[in-house]
Amino acid sequence: MIDISLLFETLAVIFQAANFFLILAGMLLGLFFGALPGISSSMGIVLMLPFTYSMGLFPLLLCWSRCMRVLPTAGRLRR
Question: Of 12, 31, 39, 58, which residue is 20 to 30 A from 68 by alpha carbon distance?
Answer without folding.
Answer: 12
